[in-house]
Every structure is written in structure tokens, then in C-alpha cells.
Amino acid sequence: MSAKIAVLPGDGIGPEIVGEAMKVLDCLRREFGVAVETEQALVGGVAYDAVGHPLPRETLQLAKAADAVLLGAVGGPKWEPLDYSVRPERALLGLRSELGLFANLRPAVLHSQLIAASTLKPEIIEGLDLLIVRELTGDVYFGKPRGIRTLENGERVGINTMVYNEREVRRIAKVAFELAGQRRCKLCSVDKANVLESTELWRQVVTEVGKDYPKVELTHMYVDNAAMQLVRAPKQFDVILTTNLFGDILSDCAAMLTGSIGMLPSASLNESGKGMYEPIHGSAPDIAGKNLANPLATILSLAMLFRYTLRDEATAVRIERAVEEALDAGVRTADIYSPGTHKVSTSQMGDQVVACLRSQAS
Ligand code: IPM
Ligand code: MG
Description:
Layout: E1 3-10, H1 14-32, E2 36-40, H2 45-51, H3 57-65, E3 68-73, H4 88-98, E4 103-109, H5 122-125, E5 129-135, E6 147-150, E7 156-159, H6 166-181, E8 186-191, H7 197-210, E9 217-222, H8 223-232, E10 239-242, H9 244-257, E11 265-269, E12 275-279, H10 296-309, H11 313-328, E13 331-332, E14 342-343, H12 346-361
Parallel strand pairs: 1-2, 1-3, 3-12, 5-10, 8-9, 8-10, 13-14
Antiparallel strand pairs: 4-5, 4-11, 6-7, 11-12
Helix pairs in contact: 1-10, 1-12, 6-7, 8-9, 10-11, 11-12
The structure holds 3-isopropylmalic acid (IPM) and magnesium ion.
């Protein structure tokens, strides 16, 4: 039986980068007999334009019925004036909560070919391989009360609620400990327990869960220090476990260590391993439609889809190898270009990956 992937290209560069991942998928079907079906649907600003909502009912139904979701990006200046409830970003948050995607895996791996593209010194980042495990369905992103209210004296207040319950912390902590156990067995839990009670509880529960994982070395770090340590000495980290908001911020920071946010894939998983896969960069409206964007984060997200939802490690590794080989061939999109390499477009990069994939078949 073939697996079904809901494909949601979205806004900005979304359609271009997802298009390249589809080329990779076609090649996998043709050359390696990988059995997957895809179906596309609208999400984000383009969905709002078409039907008045960023997450149309049919899109949500398709996403729920599929084994996995591959998403490009959502949002753009065109939709910024819209009410919060119909902003493109709401579609992402809606998919996360409706599908119960509480575990967000954001690996930051330095591809050695790109060491010159990072703003950090080579010795700081050489061999970097860390994984951020971000809680994705709690915290200020979903906590209530929220909103902008007007007080009796006419003054407005903006409110969000940072809240975690034990169950939410326990389940994400388990995911992080399991993953750390498969890697270098080091887990750093990042919080702000010196100031925020919601993360004081976070620290207590993570510590409790840790008792079941004696092989994994658990440390705790405040988020401000973690941000500093990420740029000072990022190789001290193996797995970082953190909250929704802190994970959002730290993962952008970690992305830059690797040279470009255009390289970083992500997986968002629910209790049963179903997942949504997307690059961690946004819709980059400034370069949309120009065939300039880097499709590798999306292609690497497809690899994660095979690894975590379809449990097809061989195909995941095959895709990742093809990306390495494309980089070895010296082709670079603008964001990862450095002198001495060959600058290519979005579609040329996708073609190169497909060519490398095809040569693995012969
Ligand atoms: C991310 C993004 C989203 C987030 C936005 C677009 C809602 O920044 O996935 O990191 O804040 O989670
Ligand atoms: Mg973010």
C-alpha cells in the first residue's frame, strides 16, 4: 500500500521549493520504486485569497487523512494587515494543534562544504551536529487568556499566557530523552526557571522523566545563557529540549551557525508518529518567484518524512546523501554561495540533487 502525503506549498517561495522536493519524490518513485502518493492543497495567504481562510476545511481534512504533510511556507506582507484570526501563520498553528504535533525536531547540522558560508569561525562550528527538540502545541503560543483588551480607563493591554501542564512537559521530555539516547546521550533542557513558574515546573518534570533515562546526561540552562552558548561554543550541545517560544528563537539562532537558514529541515510529530515536515525558514517574499531560494531545507524535510513517519531509513539516507553530493559538486544557491563555488538557481539545485539521486540507482 502506498503512503499518502498531503503537499501544502503555501506562499512566497513555498511553491518553488516544494516543487523541487516533488522532483526528488518523482525520482524516488521512478528509480527506486518508492510507493507514495501526493495530493496538493491550499494553505496560508493563497488559501485566504481563494476561500477567505488560511486553513480551509478541505486542507485540514486532507492533512488529517494523509500519513504525513509536506509544507513549504506561509505568510507575506500582503496579508500582514489582516486580522490575527485569518493571518497565514494561523494555518501553521492550526495544523500543529489540530494534528496534535507537539514534538518539533529541528536538527542543525553543519555540512562541511558550507563552513565558509557561516558567519562564525570555522573552529567553532566544524563538525556541528545538534538537535533542538521544541515543544510545539503549548506555551504562550496557545495559552489563554490572550488578546488585546481595552481597560475601563481606555488604555489597551496585550495579553498572552505562558502555561505548561505536567502532561505536556512529560511527553515532550520523553521524546527528547529517547532521541538523545540514540545520539551522544547528552540532553540540555533550556528554561527560565529563575523567573517563570511555568518553566520551574518544566524543570521539575524534565528532571523526573530523566530518572527513567540513566544513560542520558541531563543538564539545565537558562535561555539567555543558552542563546549566548549557542554562538560561543555550540558544539557543547547534543540535544536541546525547550519550550515553544524559546525553541522558536533558539532554532533560528542555531540555524545561522550552519551558514544559512535555507539548509534546515524540521519535523513536527504527534503521539502516533504522524508528522508535518517543513523547512524552518519562512516564505521569503523578497525573493519569491525569482528562482533564487534554496530548496535544500525542503528536500531535507522530505528525508525526515521518510525517516520519522514512513520509517524508511534507507530512502531518508539516500536523499541526504544526494544533498551532500550536490554540495560536493560545488553548486550553491545565493544564500550559501562563497567564492570558488558555482552559483545556481532553485531549479538547478533541485536538478543537481535529482542527478545525484539517479546516479545512486545505477
Ligand atoms: C517557526 C515560525 C512560526 C513559529 C511562525 C511562522 C508562526 O517562526 O516555525 O519557527 O513561530 O512557530
Ligand atoms: Mg521561527
